[in-house]
């Protein structure tokens, strides 16, 4: 979508005041938001490990332990599009405060249940619904707040700092959650509730530039709710470059989402201990953390479509190589190398959404992307599970690599993707 096209769609909407033009490290609003998100993401990673363990302790059923995550993911997908509509129509800082308050209260209710010796499966599943419902709204509002707090020329650096946060939390959260759970079952939930509360307090002090007054409701905004919620998806789908980029990224997400599951099964087939498996799978998050330093150089060196194709091609090769009998530690190295490209891909997608969709549609466009990606990840995990049920892990990763290779071939033949360019403000 050209800048001229995006600008023309702003004719009837006043522009948001400019973000403060100061070095990123002195941008108080962004750093407060980032610090709050560090607490929130760390708490989320701790809880991701603790909830299944508690469900397993309460029910003794691995099926119900898995159902907790399934309920959370399904609710997130269901609420993705409405979250984008809310993010585009209401104050984003207040919405994020509501999200953090809901997560803190939901987690706090589990702490209270432990203190009263009243932990139950229905209560835990209700918490899964609450946490899953607010997750896409939190992601959309946080993404849009970053855009309002950071000038366009600093956006890559800001998003890279966001990636550092995500991968650091993914690396440290699970082992910390396990250590806290070993102290007492309630401890990880106390820490998680405090983390969400800390994020809420820090967000209170974030002061984004005041939004321009809303123009009178236009004809498009008088459309039915379902039509309004899908505006972002239609905006992305209507532009060949954005449509192709979104679909290619979704294909990558579909294939990479079940990689950890496949590696775990593969290593168990080889007789590795749970400790060795844990260190091996952690390599993906470590690679992602290391990959944050590559974001700026890769974005300067390669056009977005070329970078996307390069990352997709190397990912297909690395996933396929997991089937090779190159020693027990080869999967850890392959996962590390696979993780290196993750931050560059996510920042690439964010830049395209941030810059090439009008501000009044960014929440819905971002939510549409996250919904498509989440649905693809769920489908990928399900299909990989079926493959693992009937075939070896080596066959499964080869099938996954073949699917991504096929998507890469289609992308390579797509002129819009090959010739895509960075938005002008991003180049400034």
Automatic annotation (TrEMBL):
Gene3D superfamilies: MFS general substrate transporter like domains
Alphabetically ordered keywords of this record: Cell membrane, Membrane, Transmembrane, Transmembrane helix
All residue ranges annotated as the Major facilitator superfamily (MFS) profile domain in the record: 29-419
Organism superkingdom: Bacteria
Biased composition (Basic and acidic residues): 1-14
PROSITE patterns xrefs: MFS
Places the protein is found: Cell membrane
Region (Disordered) location: 1-20
One of the Pfam families matching this protein, by short name: MFS_1
Its membrane topology: Multi-pass membrane protein
Transmembrane segments annotated in the record for this chain: 32-58, 64-83, 179-206, 244-264, 276-295, 307-326, 332-353, 365-385, 391-412
Entry keyword Transmembrane: yes
InterPro entries (UniProt xref): MFS (IPR011701), MFS_dom (IPR020846), MFS_trans_sf (IPR036259)
UniProt key word Transmembrane helix: yes
Protein name per Swiss-Prot or TrEMBL: MFS transporter
Biological source species: Streptomyces fuscus
High-level lineage: Bacteria, Bacillati, Actinomycetota, Actinomycetes, Kitasatosporales
């Amino acid at each position: 979508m050209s800048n001229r096209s995006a600008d023309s769609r702003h004719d009837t909407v006043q522009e948001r005041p400019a973000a403060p033009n100061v070095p990123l490290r002195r941008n108080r609003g962004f750093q407060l938001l980032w610090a709050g998100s560090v607490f929130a993401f760390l708490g989320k990673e701790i809880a991701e490990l603790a909830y299944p363990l508690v469900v397993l302790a309460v029910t003794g059923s691995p099926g119900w332990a898995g159902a907790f995550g399934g309920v959370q993911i399904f609710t997130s997908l269901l609420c993705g599009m409405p979250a984008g509509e809310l993010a585009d129509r209401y104050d984003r800082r207040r919405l994020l405060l509501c999200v953090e308050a809901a997560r803190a209260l939901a987690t706090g209710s589990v702490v209270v249940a432990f203190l009263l010796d009243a932990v139950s499966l229905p209560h835990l599943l209700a918490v899964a619904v609450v946490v899953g419902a607010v997750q896409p709204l939190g992601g959309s509002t946080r993404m849009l707040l970053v855009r309002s707090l950071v000038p366009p020329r600093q956006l890559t650096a800001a998003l890279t700092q966001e990636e550092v946060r995500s991968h650091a939390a993914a690396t440290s959260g699970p082992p910390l959650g396990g250590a806290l759970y070993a102290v007492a079952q309630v401890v990880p939930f106390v820490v998680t509730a405090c983390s969400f509360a800390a994020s809420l307090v820090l967000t209170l002090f974030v002061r984004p530039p005041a939004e321009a007054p809303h123009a009178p409701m236009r004809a498009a905004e008088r459309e039915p709710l379902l039509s309004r919620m899908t505006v972002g998806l239609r905006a992305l789908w209507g532009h060949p470059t954005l449509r192709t980029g979104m679909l290619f990224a979704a294909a990558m997400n579909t294939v990479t989402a079940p990689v950890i599951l496949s590696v775990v099964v593969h290593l168990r087939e080889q007789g590795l201990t749970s400790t060795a498996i844990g260190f091996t799978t952690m390599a993906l998050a470590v690679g992602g953390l290391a990959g944050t330093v590559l974001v700026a150089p890769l974005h300067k060196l390669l056009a977005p479509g070329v970078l996307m194709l390069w990352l997709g091609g190397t990912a297909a090769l690395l996933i396929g190589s997991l089937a090779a009998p190159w020693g027990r530690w080869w999967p850890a190295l392959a996962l590390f190398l696979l993780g290196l490209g993750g931050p560059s891909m996510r920042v690439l997608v964010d830049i395209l959404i941030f810059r090439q969709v009008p501000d009044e549609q960014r929440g819905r466009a971002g939510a549409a992307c996250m919904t498509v990606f989440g649905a693809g990840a769920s489908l990928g995990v399900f299909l990989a599970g079926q493959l693992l049920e009937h075939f070896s892990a080596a066959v499964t990763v080869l099938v996954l690599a073949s699917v991504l290779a096929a998507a890469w071939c289609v992308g390579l033949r797509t002129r819009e993707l090959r010739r895509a360019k960075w938005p002008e403000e991003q180049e400034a």
